[in-house]
Amino acid sequence: MSRWLLLAALGCLSCHAQRDRGGVDWLGKAQLYKAPEEDRCARFKKGGGPAEQCAEAKYLGTIYVRRLSSGDEVCLEGGFGDVAGPACLARAAVVDAATNRVLLEVREAKPESKWFSHEQSQFWFEEGALVDLYVADHGY
What we know:
Number of helices: 3
Largest sheet: 5 strands, mixed
Number of domains: 1
Radius of gyration: 18 Å
Oligomer: single chain
Order of helices and strands: HEHEEEEH
Strand content: 15-25%
Distance between the termini: 62 Å
Structural class: alpha+beta
């Protein structure tokens, strides 16, 4: 009888972890990348070409990030938001998602990538951090 009680308790802890952190990084060891405090597009004067183009990139980046789901592969460096082609320096996979956060696992990184020493590591990214990465990778 005590084995069943122990299994039920462990199952309950697992459910609690899934609700709190999306179910994967339940030990809380993945580093969190927060959204930048300043909007990247704010440096452009309003009412001009670059400002409007940056705002459009931010909008498209927001849509892209919000549509990410577990199992999706992304280019984490060298073209975030694009298909992970030969220019991609670091490939990652979406492991999980929670409110305003996406958990990425670095799967493959080239030696010149800043992610090279982080292969098989997981990182939480706030939505705004990934949108900022999208905007930056698109030239703004």
